[in-house]
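Final report, Chapter 2: Outcomes

The project's central promise was a pipeline that accepts a single protein chain and returns its three-dimensional structure in a standardized token representation, suitable for archiving and comparison. That pipeline is now operational. To close this chapter, we reproduce one record exactly as it appears in the project archive, with the input sequence first and the structure output second.
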Amino acid sequence: MSRSASSRANRRGEPPPSPEPLPSPALDSHTHLDIVLGERPAGDEHGEWASDDDVDAEIAAAAAVGVPRLVQVGVDVPSSRWSAALAARHPNVLAAVALHPNEAGEGRATEGALAEIDRLAALPRVRAVGETGLDRYRTGPEGWAAQEASFRAHIRIAKDRGVALVIHDREAHDEILRVLEDEGAPEHTVFHCFSGDAEFARACVERGYVLSFAGTLTFGNAGYLREAAALAPADQLLVETDAPFLTPMPHRGRPNASRLVPHTVRALAEVKGVDLDELCHHLTTTAERVFGSWE
């Protein structure tokens, strides 16, 4: 399934209601507001984007439940430009810019595209390069070399620009660690939508990487993720939605949004056996260490 088809599928159904607000502010470390609110036509840089009013309403809905900090993530050149522009105008938003590994696997990580990601990564409110990485699920072996070359280029951009690296890792745990070791990881490296087991989590934690958990943490069949989260130190944890994807329970299968991240925060607090207010404080502190201040 293409990313555009997947995004349409994840927007089907009635949006879930907002949950009870968190007792202290937290964040969504990875969202795609452009897809949540209606992605432009596939491959058309000049297609329709969400209006500023719709975007602002979505951000306000998240803030109303205790999620006033968002990281808006690009997956190609147009969405990375949009993400950077949104962060520049909105105090609740920081941006990450990159070519998604599946884009790279299809030959779109051209010299010109990477140069534009590098330019965007230098902007003041662009605080991460991502999501980049490796995907052995949607991209076949014929695209793996291009993915890896793109991943290496993004790592270098992150280090050159002094920003965090946000990693997409799908069925590529060992390869991701190998490339990070070869290139040398940036000071702040985040595994977006962490998908490994406790053993892989331990390997990442030992290297100082941050594990970001999405709504998948709440799924009934995700005991291995809860085991991974349980062993990670509080200062190496983040939460995210990856909206409109990976909607947490009890709304799995319906459209996701940043205002639903409290479900994942509460699940993580239960897994860690910590007070909810305390966890919110840790998440905010870690986010500001990784991405810098939103103010």
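Archive annotation: The first strand starts at residue 27 and ends at 31.
This record, like all others produced under the grant, will remain available to the consortium after the project formally closes.
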